[in-house]
Amino acid sequence: MYKRDNADSAWVIVGDMDTIYLGLASLAAANTFTQKNVFSNENEFNADQHLDGDALLWRFRDTGGSGVEWGLRSDGGNFEICENTGTEGTPVWTVRMTLSSSAITGSSFDLALMRIAYTNWNHNPIVEGLAPGRLTGIAYGNTTNRWIICGSSKIYHSKNGDSHWTEASNYGGMVEFNQIIWGEAASLYVTCGNYGVMGYSSYGDTWTSGGNSGDWMNELAYDGGTFVSVGLNERIVESTTGTSWTSRRTGSNDLIDVTYGNSLFVAVGAAGTILTSPDGITWTARTSGTASALNGILWTGTKFLVTGTSGIIRESTDGIIWTTGTATPNVIQAWDIKGSTIVGIYKNILVYDIVVSTDDGVTWNNLGSIFSCGTYYAINAIAADPTRNRFLGPGGNATGTEGFLLSSLTLSD
After folding, report:
1. How far is CA 139 from CA 36, 157, 236, 312, 369, in A?
2. 34: β partners
3. In whole angstroms, what is the distance from residue 221 CA to residue 261 CA?
């Protein structure tokens, strides 16, 4: 259990049944734990609450925005981290994680922190009483301080990304949105979608059509001055304003994803397709080393990672030469990075599992299932929250009748 401080560290409680250690764990450096105090028995904690006869050792409220209250308790053999799903006066403690009764050190300790941070997810309708349909894209505007979520015929905006969402008042005649991006220098949200739809908005409440690209568009990227969107039939369109677009390429292979990093746009798609461009205008095909479909690409800050069929990972530091990386259990459907932590989500039959890497994708930790989805559910994107220590993921069912937002719960921001 931990409480983050201003020095990018976390106060941590670990231990066994006789000795509990209070210390600082660095969030910037792996495997770092500095012991600050030792409690010899439970009586030095506030044990005024009991759960089925077991003492609640510590009560802790997240003051970072969610207001969630947590408890650390002893169940007689292990420590359990519990969430109060009741009220402060009448708590109902729900176990969210079990820690071994032995002191946690080294890599096991780091993995425990990751499990606390990224395996507790909320699943709620985006707006109560409405059926917003399949939700596919998400973006946060640093200037507007607004989250925007888009999907099949709907766009919503929110200040905190929690439960208070408002539908856009005007769509400019557009329908079927696939993805959305915030362009900081342009102070503009840009969206792409089915039937070639391109749109833009300053605040996410009123939208204007940016024209039609001619093909179903899947994804967007921004380099600080140029927007790029990719889609079916190898369609690539480019814009320096976000309000009007120029077609730069078409071909035979569908493009699924695009990103920007290391002064390069990189797009990936069907049949192992990888294309690169320094400016969004001139594109060059690269040898990926696979004929499998490539579904997603991520720039970690030091290299590109590409995910594909059966969990295949291709990687490159320059976007030009590609090699085989460490495979994940299955194809990652959505991923993002916060600091040095990559969080990815993939479908495992009828549940969604979370994988985490803190070493640029060299190793992956499968943290288990977070959500029972049913056959037709899809989580289509994950976004790291720049304001809080969490990730958000929009999704929905295939028929477009239900949309939802997943958010990872942390013990502290």
Report:
1. 40, 10, 21, 27, 25
2. 24
3. 10
DSSP collapsed to 3 states, the chain:
CEEECCCCEEEEEEECCCCEEEEEEECCCCCCEEEEEEECCHHHCCCCCEECCEEEEEEEECCCCCCCEEEEEECCCCEEEEEECCCCCCCCEEEEEEECCCCCCHHHHHHHHHHHHHCCEEEEECCCCCCCCCEEEEEEECCCCEEEEEECCCEEEECCCCCCCEECCECCCCCCEEEEEEECCCCEEEEEEHHHEEEEECCCCECEEEEECCCCEEEEEECCCCEEEEEHHHCEEEECCCCCCEEEECCCCCEEEEEEECCEEEEEEHHHCEEEECCCCCCEEECCCCCCCEEEEEECCCCEEEEEHHHCEEEECCCCCCEECCCCCCCCCEEEEECCEEEEEEEECCEEEEEEECCCCCCCEEEEEEEECCCCEEECCCEECCCCCCEEEEEEECCCCCEEEEEECCCCC
What's the CA gap between 63 and 39, in Å, rounded? 25
- Mean pLDDT in each 10-residue stretch from start to end of the chain (413 residues)? 40 46 44 45 38 53 55 62 75 69 44 54 52 81 93 85 81 84 97 92 94 91 98 97 96 96 98 97 97 95 93 95 91 90 83 86 82 65 87 77 72 38
Side chain identity at residue 341, one-letter code = T
> CA 361 → CA 78, 180, 341, distances in Å?
31, 25, 9
Give the CA distances from residue 140 to residues 154, 160, 176, in Å, rounded to whole numbers and listed in that order: 17, 10, 20
Nearest alpha-carbon partner for 146 in 135, 133, 160 = 160
Give the type of residue at 24.
L
